[in-house]
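F.,

This is the one I mentioned.
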């Protein structure tokens, strides 16, 4: 049985040689680990309940911290977790929203995201800089001396700013020099109640054959799981699984913690065959430059349609994520004999709970080699370009995680878009397969018909598989062509967007606003999205806070003097295709 694994595939393919050890994680964590148990306090004085844990698999990225519940409300005081100074103040409509970064003497940085407000001096500093730069989004570095803090000092209030779908605090601990982000629960500074082992949902097997030096995956075979006790799993079919000769497993799993209904990510997985470990990883930390490797860490095609995590128990050649431990044959399954082999898969959560799945496998002698798929063999290590039917595609080297059979063609002729003011003016092109991820962007160039007008309003759009929905990609026009970069395969076309954004104020013209602290507008665009907006009161630039489609101005007496007279407000909103809407209102305050 020790001869189960025999290398029969070229070393640069999916099941090739090598692995990427987790030594970098361990080295970066040493400074944090040397801190005494009470070095860090909790960032809030509320019950410690998580709505998301570290390194959950998200679309195109790992979750870089933990999300702490705030009881469904905003305005909970946030405290510095240790002595240090505020090194960075960040304000954005997306991402972390309003965020503070605090550098600590032990070489770490704590991060607090989705805040409602900063402490007053920092808030005044931000407001001054926004007016000076005439920008709503700012990224500020105030220096070591300006905002020193001590452990337990209030630094602001919790909120729901940025790309947040409910009130909570996003919290991180990073290594300051490298900005490597750490798995906070694993560091042992905080007590988080969790005695629930991971839930193992299904097991998937993907047979892989090498044809023309390209790994060809067959249809996924799914096996249902049964549980004998908490944390103990086996395949519902207890006989040996009869598998094609070469392939790999995908584990579908999820996790929960006590007193919360939210699903969590899996911390680590080990796989053993006949008692020998052949695959393993631990998500103790990662660098932000690694985060997009989540699309290889999971099975991208299956992960896109699931709320569980689809964990690929094999390393693709292009995966450079630094979380994997000693892994033999990159997790590949090579069944070279007719014997029955014992498999054990252990999934861990970040509280040390584990679930174990055991089953048996055997080579299926009746397995057949698949037909060669359509397309051109493409080596992922080299750049590739293809031009057909007015479509030109360039894929940079190492944008793919493994070689593919690439294809592109006209999917269907130009068609009406479900938005009345637009229509596709070229065919809809199929650019390979939407279930295959790209690590870096490819370039798409599409030829336009002779005599095409309003070229400044043209953009490339991505089309849903059912042809009913179009989403903005962008692009620049030059020489009868339009070009855009994108990180997704799928269907693409060119449309013309000539409709201005919609702008709806929250008050009538001439309204008396003396009893109000703020006013808002609802701004939206039916296709390309809002690119910018700018407001003035009596000719003076004013600050807007944005959350989704709503922008809000909080009256600021440092900018405008309010003495009960009439004021004039103007607002200009522009979408990504250059269409502009302007609104003017008067009000009394």
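My design for it:
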């Amino acid at each position: 049985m020790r001869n189960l694994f025999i290398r029969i595939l070229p070393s640069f393919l999916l099941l090739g040689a090598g692995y990427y050890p987790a030594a970098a994680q361990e080295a970066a964590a040493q400074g944090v680990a040397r801190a005494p148990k009470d070095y860090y306090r909790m960032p809030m004085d509320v019950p410690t309940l998580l709505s998301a844990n570290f390194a959950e698999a998200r679309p195109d990225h790992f979750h870089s911290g933990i999300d702490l519940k705030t009881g469904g409300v905003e305005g909970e005081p946030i405290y510095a977790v240790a002595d240090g100074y505020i090194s960075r103040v960040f304000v954005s409509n997306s991402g972390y929203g309003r965020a503070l970064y605090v550098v600590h003497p032990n070489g770490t940085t704590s991060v607090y995201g989705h805040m409602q407000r900063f402490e007053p001096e920092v808030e005044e500093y931000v407001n001054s800089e926004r007016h000076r730069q005439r920008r709503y989004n700012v990224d500020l570095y105030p220096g070591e001396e300006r905002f020193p803090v001590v452990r337990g000092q209030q630094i602001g209030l919790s909120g729901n700013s940025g790309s947040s779908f409910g009130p909570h605090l996003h919290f991180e601990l990073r290594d300051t020099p490298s900005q490597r982000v750490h798995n906070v629960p694993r560091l042992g500074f905080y007590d988080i109640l969790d005695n629930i082992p991971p839930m193992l949902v299904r097991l998937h097997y993907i047979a892989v054959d090498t044809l023309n030096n390209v790994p060809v995956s067959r249809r996924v075979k799914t096996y249902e799981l049964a549980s004998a006790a908490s944390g103990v799993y086996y395949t519902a079919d207890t006989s040996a699984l009869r598998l094609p000769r070469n392939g790999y497993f995908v584990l579908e799993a999820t996790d929960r913690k006590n007193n919360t209904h939210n699903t969590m990510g899996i911390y680590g997985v080990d796989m053993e065959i006949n008692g020998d470990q052949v695959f393993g990883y631990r998500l103790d930390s990662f660098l932000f430059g690694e985060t997009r490797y989540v699309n290889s860490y999971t099975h991208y095609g299956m992960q896109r349609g699931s709320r569980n995590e689809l964990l690929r128990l094999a390393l693709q050649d292009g995966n450079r994520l630094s979380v994997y431990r000693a892994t033999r044959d990159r997790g590949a399954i090579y069944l070279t004999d007719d014997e029955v082999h014992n498999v054990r898969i252990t999934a861990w959560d970040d509280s040390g709970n584990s679930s174990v799945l055991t089953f048996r496998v055997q080579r299926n002698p009746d397995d057949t080699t698949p037909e060669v798929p359509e397309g051109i063999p493409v080596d992922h290590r080299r750049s590739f370009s293809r031009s057909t039917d007015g479509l030109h595609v360039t894929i940079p080297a190492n944008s793919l995680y493994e070689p593919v059979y690439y294809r592109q063609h006209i999917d269907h002729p130009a068609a009406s878009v479900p938005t009345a003011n637009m229509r596709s003016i070229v065919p809809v092109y199929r650019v390979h397969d939407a279930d295959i991820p790209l690590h870096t962007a490819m370039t798409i160039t599409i030829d336009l018909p002779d005599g095409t007008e309003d070229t400044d309003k043209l953009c490339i759009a991505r089309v849903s598989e059912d042809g009913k929905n179009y989403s903005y990609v962008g692009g620049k026009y030059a020489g009868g062509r339009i070009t855009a970069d994108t990180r997704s395969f799928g269907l693409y076309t060119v449309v013309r967007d000539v409709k201005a954004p919609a702008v709806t104020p929250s008050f009538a013209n001439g309204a008396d606003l003396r009893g109000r602290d703020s006013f808002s507008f609802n701004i939206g665009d039916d296709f390309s999205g809002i690119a910018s907006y700018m407001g003035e009161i009596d000719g003076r630039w004013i600050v807007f806070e944005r959350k989704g489609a709503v922008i809000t101005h909080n009256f600021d007496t440092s900018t405008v003097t309010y003495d009960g007279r009439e004021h004039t407000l103007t607002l200009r909103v522009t979408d990504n295709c250059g269409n502009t809407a302007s609104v003017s209102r008067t009000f009394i305050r």
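Residues 247 and 585 are 65 Å apart (CA to CA).

Talk soon.
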